[in-house]
Design a protein that fits this description.
By secondary structure, this protein is mainly α. The protein is built from 5 helices and 2 strands. It has a two-stranded parallel sheet. The longest helix has 19 residues, at 57-75. It is elongated. The two termini are 31 Å apart.
Length: 114
C-alpha cells in the first residue's frame, strides 16, 4: 500500500504539499508553542504579532534583535529527509506549490518552490 502511494507521488505532475512546523523542528529550527517553544519559554514575545508594538522603538528593537538571532539559528539548520524529498520532487518537475508554517531560507532547506 505504501509503495503505491510513493509510486503515485513520483508520477504526479502537479503536487501540492501542506506541511507543518515539525518538518523544520527536526532540522534544528526553533518552534513557537511546544514546551521548549519560543513563546512558551519567553524567548520571543507574542508581541511580535501585534502591529502596534512595531511603533515603539524600544520593543521593535528588542524584537529585531531576537529575530536576527533566530535567523542565525535557522540558517544553521540541516535539511531533513523530508526537505531532501521536496527538493527531489521539485527538481523532477512534479512539485508546484508548498504551503508551510516554516521559515526555511537556507539553500539546504528551501526547495525552489514558492
Amino acid at each position: 500500500a505504501i509503495s503505491a502511494v510513493i509510486s503515485s507521488i513520483l508520477k504526479a505532475q502537479n503536487l501540492i504539499i501542506i506541511c507543518g512546523a515539525g518538518v523544520s523542528v527536526s532540522a534544528g529550527n526553533p518552534d513557537f508553542h511546544s514546551l521548549q517553544g519560543l513563546f512558551t519559554t519567553g524567548a520571543l514575545s507574542k508581541d511580535l504579532l501585534d502591529a502596534s508594538v512595531w511603533k515603539t522603538t524600544t520593543k521593535a528593537s528588542s524584537l529585531c534583535k531576537t529575530l536576527a538571532q533566530m535567523h542565525q539559528e535557522c540558517f544553521q539548520a540541516l535539511p531533513t529527509p523530508f526537505h531532501l524529498a521536496l527538493k527531489m520532487l521539485d527538481e523532477k518537475g512534479g512539485l508546484c506549490q508548498v504551503y508551510t508554517q516554516n521559515i526555511e531560507s537556507k539553500a539546504g532547506l528551501s526547495f525552489g518552490v514558492p
